[in-house]
Every structure is written in C-alpha cells, then in structure tokens.
Design brief:
single chain, alpha/beta, UDP-N-acetylmuramoyl-L-alanine:D-glutamate ligase, 9-stranded mixed sheet, 4-stranded mixed sheet, 35% helix, 24% strand
C-alpha cells in the first residue's frame, strides 16, 4: 500500500530544563536534541517504522539544515521526491519542563516548504493508494493554493485522503481555515484534538459524518475517540511518565492508519494508536515502537 505524505519539514531544537521566565538566569538543560522533524517528516518516519510505505513530497532547503534532513531520510531508506528550495529550513525551538509541558517558537515564515507546487507534483511518475495531508504546510497563500490543487487531483484519481488540519500551527493564518475546510471535503479520515475540531463550523462535522467521513479526536493523556455515521467510540488514556510530547500526534496518526489499512477496523485502530502515541512520549525526540 503506497501512501503519499504531504507536510512540512523542519529541524527541531528540543530543550528540557527547569526554566523560570520570571527571572533572568543562566539555564543548564537537563537534556537537548537537534533533529530533523516537522509534521510531514514525523509522520513519514513513524509510518515507515510501523511497516507502511510512505513517499514524502515537499521541497527541502539547500541550506545546511536541509542537507541534514536529506541525509536523515536517505539513512532510513525513506522514499522522497528530491525537490529543493533556496529558502531556509524552518526551525522549531521547543522548551520542555519536567512534566513534558512545552512552549514552542516556530520560525516558519517564507521557508522551504512554501515552494511546494502542483507542477512539480505532476512530475512524479507513480500512483498512490492513499495520501496523508498535514495542515502544517498550508500556513501561507501559495502552499494553500498548490496543496489544494494536489488534493483535488488525487481525489479525482481515486486516491483516499487522510487529513490532519494541525490548527495549532496555522491558527490565525489568513486563508488557513478556509483551505482546511476545502481539504476536509475531499478527506475520508480527519484527525485533530477537540479544540481543533471546534475550529470547524458547527454543522460541518455532522455533514461529514452523514457523508461517511471518520473523525478521530486525539485527547493526549485522556485518550482518544472516534465519530462516524456508525461508530461513537472512545478509549481511555494510557498512564506513562511523559518526557516529550513532540511528534506524539503525528505518531498517533501513523499508528492509526497502519492498523486501519491492515484490517479496516476503526476501534482496534484507535486503541493501537492510543497506546503507541502514549509510549512515544517517554523519551526525548521521535520514538516509535510497535512491540509495546
């Protein structure tokens, strides 16, 4: 099963420390990590490690950070379209406390992933059974237009679309919500946490449910639930000592789709994703294990 992945790439700088912003002090991190990331990369790597066959499509910068991303993907034998951009790599600085609570500084404006284009996509000489779209890539007008063209093209060719709007990244960005709504209309399964789902117009979710769409609500430590025309089901959270929640939502999505594409069972997929995502938080950085 070939799955196309469209979502931004970045470099994460993760710092875990006892930080008190109320006073000026020299902080010595307990742990730190600099690693390739972004919702598109995270989902691609997680799905690969879980046994899917992702193909990543998004421009990667020609700068040094971009080179590290290319080397990372090549080291994993992860297939990707080798389109590059002269714009800089997005940088995400994440500050974590001892409970895994995070604050994020996102330097993403006018960066490499905004050079994504439908014309480049048409140069890919292959068919895809499924496509996963991360809304993290539609934070500017150009990628909004181009990604929407790609999604419409895939839908018309019979590709099943899975979508995570990623409102935490694009909330407040001009055109973001409207583009998410348009993509949602093409999608079969939509992921998001409860506050993100509430960003959609109130009647849109019900209309989607009536059209056989599946809405997956991620609740972090409180578990997850799924709503569809035939299913209203939820699972409780898994108790773990969380150290880093970065990428847990992307891992959840990958685990859910891995199980769903294997057996088509929504409840089992939700339970599997809930467990895998919970245990992904016990270490710094992206951590995926299907043996838990």
């Amino acid at each position: 099963m070939k799955i196309l992945v469209i979502g931004e790439n970045a470099v994460d700088i993760i710092i875990r420390a006892n930080i008190d912003f109320s006073k000026e002090e020299n902080v010595f991190p307990e742990e730190k990590l600099i690693t390739p990331a972004g919702t598109g990369i995270n989902f691609s790597v997680a799905s690969l490690q879980l046994g899917l066959k992702p193909f990543y499509f998004c421009p990667i910068s020609t700068d040094e950070f971009g080179s590290s991303i290319l080397q990372y993907l090549e080291s994993l034998n992860l297939q990707f379209f080798k389109a590059q951009s002269s714009k800089p790599t997005p940088l995400i600085i994440t500050l974590l406390n001892d409970e895994g609570v995070r604050n994020t500084i996102a330097m993403i404006r006018d960066t490499s992933y905004t050079d994504i284009s439908f014309e480049s996509f048409k140069g890919i000489n292959r068919e895809f059974d499924f496509a996963y779209i991360s809304g993290g890539i539609i934070t500017e007008r150009k990628p909004q237009r181009e990604v929407l063209k790609i999604v419409k093209h895939l839908f018309e060719r019979g590709t099943k679309i899975f979508f995570d709007p990623q409102f935490r990244i694009g909330k407040g960005v001009e055109g973001f919500l409207d583009t998410c709504i348009k993509i949602l209309n093409y999608a079969q399964i939509i992921f998001g946490n409860e506050s993100e789902m509430n960003e959609f117009p109130e009647d849109l979710i019900q209309k989607g449910i009536n059209k056989e769409k599946v809405f997956v609500y991620k609740r972090g430590k409180n578990g997850a639930k799924v709503l569809s025309k035939s299913i209203n089901f939820e699972v409780n959270g898994v108790e773990v000592k969380a150290k880093d929640t970065t990428g847990a939502g992307d891992i959840f999505n990958a685990a859910f789709l891995k199980e769903y594409l294997k057996n088509g069972k929504i409840k089992e997929s939700l339970d599997f994703a809930n467990i895998i995502a919970a245990f992904s938080t016990i270490r710094l950085g992206l951590f995926v294990s299907s043996k838990i």
